[in-house]
Design a protein that fits this description.
With about 150 residues, this protein is mainly β. It contains two helices and twelve strands; from the N terminus they run ββααββββββββββ. Strands 5-4-3-6-12 form a five-stranded antiparallel β-sheet. The longest helix has 6 residues.
Length: about 150
């Protein structure tokens, strides 16, 4: 494996760093989606007091401490599949498919608004297709990007 990666888009350098630096601290949406498998989930969000309202996460308000644009502005919310967890008590998402790969499974969900989500699960029992679950997350694992430029909000 490389100890340094240069991520290019259209002949332009987007970011340079070690694989883990790019994974943990992407400068923009392109790098965040390019590094990691499965790739990062992206959702439309609307800025509210102290955070962002995300329809694709069941209308959840995600608190944040980053500098946000004005109230009502649109942002893009990014979450890695490994940072999301199943909440069997909620019913905000439909199970589309569970891909069991041994020690890990990838669960593909469809939100009530139609957004698609991939999450990494470590349970051995696959979720039934068509079943309803929710998702939980830690706000610290949430990445926010400017909706128009794609630049990371910090």
């Amino acid at each position: 494996l490389a100890d340094k990666i240069v991520v290019l888009r259209g002949g332009r350098v987007e970011q340079v760093g070690s694989p883990m630096q790019l994974y943990d601290d992407p400068d923009n949406r392109f790098v965040a989606g390019f590094i990691g498998s499965p790739s990062m989930n992206f959702f439309a969000g609307t800025v509210e007091a102290g955070g962002v309202r995300v329809a694709g996460l069941g209308g959840r308000h995600v608190e944040t401490h980053v500098d946000l644009p004005a109230h009502g502005s649109e942002v893009t919310v990014g979450l890695r599949p490994g940072h999301l967890k199943i909440d069997p008590a909620a019913a905000t998402h439909e199970v589309d498919l569970t891909e069991a790969l041994g020690g890990v499974s990838y669960v593909y969900l469809i939100a009530n608004n139609g957004d698609r989500i991939v999450l990494e699960a470590h349970e051995n029992d696959p979720l039934p297709q068509g079943g309803r679950v929710g998702v939980t997350l830690a706000p610290a694992d949430t990445y926010l990007f400017d909706a128009s430029s794609g630049l990371r909000l910090r």
